[in-house]
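Table S5 (text form). Sequence records supplied for joint modeling of the two-component complex.
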Amino acid sequence: MTDTHGNPESHSDSMEHEDLYPTRSDAGEIRPFGRYDPVVHARNQWRWDGPLGEEVLSRYERDGFLWFEGFFSRQRIQPFFEILKTMAADQELMASDGVITDPDSGDLRSVFAMHEVSDYFSELTRDPRILGMVRQLLGSDVYIHQSRINDKYGFHGSGFDWHSDFETWHAEDGMPRMRALSASLMLTDNNEFNGPLMLIPGSHHYFIPCGGDTPEGNWKDSLKAQRLGVPAQQWLRKLSTWGGIQAPKGRPGSLLLFECNTLHASNKNMSPWPRSNLFFVYNSVDNPLHDPFCGNSPRPEFLATRGQPGPLAMADDSHKPRASEL
Amino acid sequence: MTDTHGNPESHSDSMEHEDLYPTRSDAGEIRPFGRYDPVVHARNQWRWDGPLGEEVLSRYERDGFLWFEGFFSRQRIQPFFEILKTMAADQELMASDGVITDPDSGDLRSVFAMHEVSDYFSELTRDPRILGMVRQLLGSDVYIHQSRINDKYGFHGSGFDWHSDFETWHAEDGMPRMRALSASLMLTDNNEFNGPLMLIPGSHHYFIPCGGDTPEGNWKDSLKAQRLGVPAQQWLRKLSTWGGIQAPKGRPGSLLLFECNTLHASNKNMSPWPRSNLFFVYNSVDNPLHDPFCGNSPRPEFLATRGQPGPLAMADDSHKPRASEL
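The corresponding structure-token record, covering 652 residues in total, follows.
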């Protein structure tokens, strides 16, 4: 039996609950191993149906990310800043758990569950151009596992150490398989000096178990600074020597798609130029969360959508400027 | 009366002891002001005698630094690594005050007074190609105010916040005027990810008084992390918006000359690639140190050469590889 994207359907409960990617506690002693999951999940004919062509799919398989310079127009991005201003003025929202401040400066750092706070953001996550690519890469319908905006103010905004998102989502959210990806949309310029996202191409091919016990409520700390889930330096050294490091840079409206297991990090913003990026994490509807594999209680819903969420539907994409706007 | 480089001789004691550049304590309340000192000190005919031509001198005046990609051959640089290894194995040296470790990792961060520890380094500070440019830029004979090697190990090596070296040397060493510069020689590749030096072009035209009392022995802390002497963000913002930020990058043997008052900083080394740079600070023999303007006792001699040091003499520059080495 295969589903509509050519993937074998598997519903054996025993298989689903097996921990294929052991990490945390003593798992730091386990050597890295190759991933069990494909990188591009749509197979055979389904893979070739597009929207991405084979040359781009192969690059995604090789590197673990794709960069689309100027994917959206500035015009399409501009309204978000107005919405952000409105949100920043909403004291109730700002006091909620989903709003994270910078450990050094106390400034606004992240707002989670953006797609539930704002219709405009929700619509963006369902933009046909993005959703089409995401469905192809994940080989199924998808839902939003997490959404957030990450802000780094000028001369503020500390960095984030190297990590795989999947390692955290597996351990702390119970995401069973590598069948998720992040879409990061640049709201500001990302340049050499304002702490752009750095990635290690090819690192997504390996799972690196990380040591250290996960305290209950670890997310309150981990959203401010990555401490657990940072691979041992010997593996970081090996992978970045093989694959190098890349930091995509470009203007507002640029889009980065990166696989859930691609190692990434960011440095401090040493410039006066703020860096503001939206992140939408898509997960396959065939990869719903189990209980966290680290054994803790699940993280709050604003960090990880639990249950069996319905598939995202495409949004209307008639975002052409009216003649009167020209 | 002018000296051999066309500069007016001034030996009025009262003038020399005047604090032209007030900083620390309440001075943070004083607005930035234009520097009183020229950037290129050799004047008129002396300026035109070379070795640098007018187009390069003008760039140095405008930006406050000059970058020479591949100034020395790899062959010329290679022996330094052997010397460094020998030094690292010297336990007595490693335990001395002039050796500074990283606040985060405990790794070797800086070794000071390199030119006194090693003849090979001493000779390098007197290399005719470097010394010729330095004498022209400072308009006089020069001596070594400070020399050091700065190491950032892979995945270690924290950053340094924005500062002007002159601000520290004036406050804590009693350097009266802006008539010094640093020559930084790259011993490793400096790339986007291993924490290269960043500079704000044009920032050297202004002196930015910084607030905060200077504790006795501040250097023990300040060599690990820049806390005092960091300009207020409003001025950093203005200067970097005007001038932008540049981070010269290149292969081992590349040389950076930067004026003592040019604002610079560096970010963490997030890569596996070590970053190792030599710094030689040259000061004009006509700009000897006074008592520290912050009122503290002078810093140790390995940080700041005191008294009336004699001028550096050119070294023999016959560093051609022998035919047998080809």
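Note: Chain A is about 25% helix and 20% strand.
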